[in-house]
Amino acid sequence: MPRLDDLTRPPGRPARILYGGDWNPEQWPEETWAEDLRLMRRAGVTTVTLGVFSWARLEPEPGAREFGWLDRLMDLAHAHGVGVVLATPTASPPPWLGHRHPETLPRDEDGRTEWWGSRQHFAPASEAYRTHAAAITDALAARYAAHPALVMWHINNEYCTHDWGDEAARAFRTWLRTRHGTLDALNTAWGTDFWGQRYADWDEVLPPRRAHYLRNPGHVLDFRRFTSDLLLECYRAERDIVRRHTPHLPVTTNFMPFWQGQDGWAWAAEEDVVSVDVYPDPADPRTGAHENALVADLTRAEAGGGPWMVMEQAAGAVNWRPVNRPKPEGLNRLWALQAVARGADAVHYFQWRPSRQGAEKFHSGMIGHSGEHGRAYRETVRVGADLARLGPRVAGSRVPGGGIAVLHDWDSWWAGRHEGALSDRLDQGELVRAWHRALWEAGLPVTLAHPHHDLAAHPLVVLPHLYLLDDRSITALERYVAGGGHLVCGFFTGVADPDDRVRPGGTDARLRALLGIERIDEWWPLAADESTDCGTFRGGLWTEELVTAPGTEVLASHRGGPLDGRPAVLRHGRTRYLSTLPEPAALRALLTEAAHEAGVRPVLAGLPDGVEAVRRGDLLFLLHHGRDPVTVRVPGRHRDLLTGTTVDDTLTLDRFGAAVLEEHP
Ligand code: GAL
């Protein structure tokens, strides 16, 4: 299997971190191209992504092929020593496709058409779309298979369309037949006897379109699964085409970060390189840094713990928030180094140079509108120099495994978001984010994981909230704890089975036994302005009226309110159960205590506030997410690879400063 390592550690050459971004030079006069490449070289750019959204240029009318401009670009890139990550252009079909084949356009749940004029206007089940997408992909792959600039394939872009149209309906039925076998089994799985929804014929089964009132949760859940699988089928089809032409080159598709639409675990398994786009808001650098860490920990886990790729981030401002702030000086570099610290071997941006026209003309680039003397490019050069320095020591090395696993699963996320939920404030993604942030703030080594993964490698597993758990996951948790593992489990977990059927007793009996819970009588969600007093902290979002099993220790109880005197936080053997969401400092304290008990220590003790420490291979990355200079104690003698200076016991990090330390020989 081709891997990222093939590009970052080429035989006989020094290892390197890939550095570059989306390049859309077809929007510029050709004189600009050579100028771009000159500036890229100066900045240490290794790779560019070409051709994302270029379908209308490559195939201006059905069957026509206009490759001349791309030939010249590929040749020019190669002549300048820049590798090309070549995108299949299928995320933005040319207007002629929608015009001639309206069925290639997606329909929303109200039956409204998404027209061309933007991008991502394709119906993934459409035969016409697939046929044309396959043809252009095949032509592209055939033409450039032997081109020396080509280093990787980038399939489509951020697969994210949804379609409730007629072709989607047919494909959905086929998918459902595979999953359920018979219509009877489907009726059972969805519980269609409720509200008289029983299906008598497959043709009656539709995507969950606009309906009068709440839709069937099993139906909606299966449609989300189906949509993820359908898009994955589109990815696979293009991947298989390019693989036939270039079996030696890695293939990726860029994920949106921590996003509901695709089952990241299933998708990553189909890629040679796992890549992700990450756009935290620079207006809040601390929250942004956490977002980076979360996305990195998830992407690294999806990549099996090995190197992964930042396919897109912004050098400065994006242009899709209500107010779009640039990155203050130093923040771009800090966040690039943070990704590398957490396992990235490739740092790419959207985009090299901002366009002068089109919807993203105010989106930042590695070189800004102010040009080669502007701050954006100056910082691009600096980042490139840092990555070039780190490459030989860093590329291919691994962030140590073990540590704390935060469990996350898409099936459960989807099921929990049903419109008939007890609280629309409850979102697995937000809970994973809150718990991960607590661990990140505590400086503990952490990764994300799925309950089916090998949990035994982790002394502590935390499970913020998995509404839906299959039997295999429950057994895995039982075995994990029986085998000596420590578990912290959050509320409203193990409530549903894979058909979104409530487990007997409300919460699975095996899970209750594991956590020392006799029963949960009521779930009591809290409104945004409500909280519960638990003595030493306040809890929000959720509470439960629960009865503990004999022998379970109550660590905190509710004081006042409807659950006065009832247990809120439990300990039972090596498990803890949180029936509410403690405020951030309390959650951090609670998880830190559990980590301590499980023998997991912070990466570096005694760090000043805002400093993140991450180990990768035998290096220690120190990243300062604050603005005021801080002094960090690092016992021993080290050398900072970024500056070449020797560090004896302490070092000072300035605003958004970073150091990458190796033990001094
Ligand atoms: C990404 C997309 C890019 C660009 C970027 C802007 O979602 O893949 O093409 O639009 O956002 O932030």
Brief rundown of the structure:
With about 675 residues, the chain is of the alpha/beta class. The chain has three domains: about 5-90 and about 130-160 and about 250-395, Glycosidases (TIM Barrel); about 405-600, 3-Layer(aba) Sandwich (Rossmann fold); about 610-665, Sandwich (Immunoglobulin-like). The longest helix is centred in the middle third of the chain and has 29 residues, at about 215-245.
Attribute tags:
single chain, 665 residues, alpha/beta, TIM Barrel, Rossmann fold, Immunoglobulin-like, 3 domains, nine-stranded parallel β-sheet, seven-stranded mixed β-sheet, 18 helices, 26 strands, globular, binds beta-D-galactopyranose
What does it look like?
By secondary structure, the protein is α/β, with parallel strands linked by helices. The protein folds into 3 domains: 5-90 and 132-158 and 249-394, TIM Barrel; 404-598, Class I glutamine amidotransferase (GATase) domain (Rossmann fold), CATH 3.40.50; 611-663, Golgi alpha-mannosidase II (Immunoglobulin-like, Sandwich). Helix content is 33%, strand content 20%. The strands form 5 sheets. Strands 5-4-3-2-1-9-8-7-6 form a 9-stranded parallel β-sheet. Strand 8 (308-312), helix 12 and strand 9 (344-349) form a beta-alpha-beta unit. Helix 15 packs across helix 18. The mean pLDDT is 98. The structure holds beta-D-galactopyranose. Residues 157-158, 277, 279, 312, 314, 318, 350, 360, 363 line the site of beta-D-galactopyranose.
